[in-house]
Design a protein that fits this description.
This protein is an alpha/beta fold. It has helices spanning about 25-35, 60-75, 85-95, 115-135, 135-145, 150, 155-165, 170-180, 210-220, 235-240, 240-255; strands at about 5, 10-15, 40, 80-85, 105-110, 195-200, 225-230. The chain has a single domain, classed as Alpha/Beta hydrolase fold, catalytic domain (Rossmann fold), CATH 3.40.50.1820. It is built from 11 helices and 7 strands. Helix 9 (about 210-220) links the parallel strand 6 and strand 7 (about 225-230).
């Protein structure tokens, strides 16, 4: 799946969760086409179609730098990031270091806080285990942790998710885990968010980023809207695309056109 439809210098930027790739947004691409909204979805190094990471213990900023490089390669100068989980961390870093590029923000099933020491240690241990034993155990764990009861009851969706996760390389998984462990605390940025901001949580996300954690992004910022997606846990765009699209896409269209759809 291409994941690119850019015909202007401003576009919606889809940033995927760990350990998936841009195909987790497959249900958004068609809706974006129908609404004639320019968009781009970028895989991180070692995931999907992207090349292998250059190092196995990169700084977190390397992922943001890679995304910015791809955007510049495409001629995209302004973006509205839709960041899910790890993608949300990249969206925060984009605003922190490339603020002039960001016209709006959509945070989905993510958090502003950095990892504590115990969580950092766990990520590094998990990275070592993936390199030693392979990725299968991690994918099974992620499928369990990241999905709602309704998603788990849908064999087709669960198989689709598994296939997307299986496109990740062990090296890509390990590098991303180590980078996330080192990401900075983005909470100081919350009071500085001066662009339209939408915050989305999965109502059934009890194990990764509970709604209360996600909502705190909205509570501590100038968030314009907070939404909880029913029948979804950590992956709302994939688990309940109908509700997600009905809520998020009109908001995106309004922001990207500055309220003037005829400008597209």
């Amino acid at each position: 799946m291409e994941g690119i439809r850019v015909f202007t210098s401003k576009a919606v930027l889809f940033l995927h969760a760990f350990p998936l790739n841009k195909n987790m947004f497959r249900y958004q691409f068609k809706a974006m086409e129908e609404e004639r909204i320019p968009y781009v979805a970028i895989d991180y190094p070692g995931f999907g179609d992207a090349p292998m990471p250059l190092e196995l213990d990169p700084p977190f900023e390397a992922y943001t730098n890679y995304v910015v490089w791809k955007l510049r390669e495409l001629g995209v100068k302004k973006v509205i990031p839709v960041g899910v989980s790890m993608g949300g961390y990249i969206a925060f870093d984009l605003f922190r270091r490339f603020r002039d590029m960001v016209e709006g923000l959509v945070f989905v099933a993510t958090r502003a806080e950095a990892d504590d020491e115990e969580r950092r240690r766990q990520r590094y241990e998990l990275a070592e285990r993936v390199l030693r034993e392979g990725k299968e155990f991690l994918i099974e764990t992620m499928l369990e942790l990241q999905t709602s009861p309704k998603t788990k009851a849908d064999p087709k969706k669960m198989e689709e998710l598994k296939c997307i996760m299986n496109e990740a390389t062990e090296e890509g998984i390990a590098a991303a885990l180590r980078a996330m462990a080192k990401r900075p605390d983005f909470t100081p940025l919350l009071k500085e968010l001066d662009v339209p901001t939408l915050v989305v949580a999965g109502k059934d996300d009890e194990k990764v980023t509970p709604p209360s954690v996600v909502k705190s992004i909205c509570d501590r910022s100038n968030c314009s809207l907070y939404v909880e997606v029913p029948d979804a846990a950590h992956l709302p765009p994939f688990e309940n695309p109908e509700f997600f699209n009905q809520t998020v896409i009109p908001w995106l269209k309004n922001v990207i056109t500055d309220g003037h759809p005829d400008c597209l």
